[in-house]
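Morning!

As promised:
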Amino acid sequence: MIAVRLSPTLRALPTLFAVSFAEAVAYRAEFLVWMLSNTMPLIMLALWSAVARDAPVGRFGQKEFVSYFLATFIVRQLTSSWAAWQMNYDIRQGTLALRLLRPIHPMLMFAVENLAAQPMRLLVALPMAVIWLTSVGAAQMPREPLSWALLVAAVLGGWAITFCANFAIGCLAFFMESSIKAMDVWLALYFVFSGYLIPVELFPPAVRAAGDWLPFRYQIGLPVELMTSAHDRAAAVALLWRQWVWVGIMLAGAIALWRKGQQRFAAYGG
Amino acid sequence: MISVRDLSKHYRVHKRPPGLAAAVRSLFHRSYTTVKAVDGITFEVRPGERVGFLGPNGAGKTTTLKVLSGLLHPTGGEVTVDGRVPLRRERDFLTGIMLVTGQKQQLLWDLPPAETFELNRAIYDVPVAEFRQTVAELTELLELGDLITKPSRQLSLGERMKCELAAALIHRPRVLFMDEPTIGLDVSMQAIIRSFIKSYNERRGATILLTSHYMDDVAALCPRVIVIDKGRLSYDGGLDALVRRVRPEKRVVLRLDREVDAAALAQLGRVVTHESAQAVLQVSQDAVNATVTRALATLPVRDLTVENAPLEEVMSELFARSRAARETEEKETAVP
């Protein structure tokens, strides 16, 4: 493994972000289309609003569904990662070799490349946040600085779980011919259990209890719940604690898979 | 600088015959074979040396370079580069080496090469003053001009290769592994790249291990060559000595004022080629003087040169010999 020397890596970060952002801007049209393809929460918003027209579903009336799914759209933009597809390509094509030659851990490079695209994502997320605030969100948004801090931590945690899951699944391409199908399985579970399609509190109690022990809820559901002030502080802190335990687990898993998988890297064509 | 002891790298490869039935069978049962890409090679390279690493396709050259660069974990043997074990991929190791391949690029496709240079400056932690000096030097030597401000995707293959080389050298690596650096380039661009590699070696004292199928690259750059075939070392030594060993005969190249009989040429030596007023004869080294004297006396010679056999021929003969030797060895081992 690369011996960790913090200072050269830290010094490199601003340039890594700047160049990665320049790359994201170079692909701006493609990137915008991709961002707009994540519009499932808006479809779910229309669907669930129609369902709640006559009577609320649990605590969710029409207004609550609008608020929830607008917040879901925003959180999804801020917590996305595509490292699994990049890694699968790099490992299969051998282009991972170019990353391995550099004295900076490829995991960090992938993370920076994903994070550097956030300003572009904000272009879509910010107008949606304004719509959320002016329509339904103002009454639900966090009021106190500590609640905001918890929300920021939850969004960061959601991104970290998503990224580590992507990285770990990307590493599976070291062991199998392609890890894309594994990512499809992860995404199917993610769509169901994260609160992306249905607020987790609407699940039957047994499914909800199971979902609480899985990582998916902490990718989307928890940040959205904190954004819409769905929990009191004690519950929010407890859930945040669980989320960051998942960050630790996913990070450890991703690093372990990387270490094991890298030994199998064949660098075909690279 | 580079030390390789009994290096081996084996791959486990899934094999299946073509066809639907084989595809279905492979779902339930897979057969694997072990491919010995590198099979116990040993060599040393001293600091500042330029060494050609040669062999036919599939000989194990690129695999060896990838092991030396820390990309592949060897199956067996010991390797050190600049005093470090490559597979540990320590920062000091990675900042001291670079692998340049003619087929894969590190340039950011949609951004100008200058952005990749800047990225590498940051990644390798190169001081800004040194970076500026290096870029100025590389721009001059490689005649990069305004190429570095155009998006990489808009550059021609040769222009991109020049920028690739520049990007690879931003951190002034002490050891340079080059895998087919001139592949696909036109003759003049090959010459520019060759001249640059030589100049970098001389200016920086860098150690260079180079693979190429273009023997002109090898002749121009590598006083020493290491030849491998099917993962095994078949020659390590001077290029001239290799030519003398494999093809000790000399070539007498004749350009004549008029066409002459093949019989007249055959009296002088073995006729390699004979087309109208041009002919190439092969003679033993001892007979060169006598052959030249007789040719000048008996033929209407306009121009005469004495050359070694082309390096391509030398190499293919060497590969053929090592294949034959291996087959004999395998037959002998197979006999109970």
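Chain A touches chain B through 31 residues (CB under 8 Å).

Hope this helps with the figure draft.
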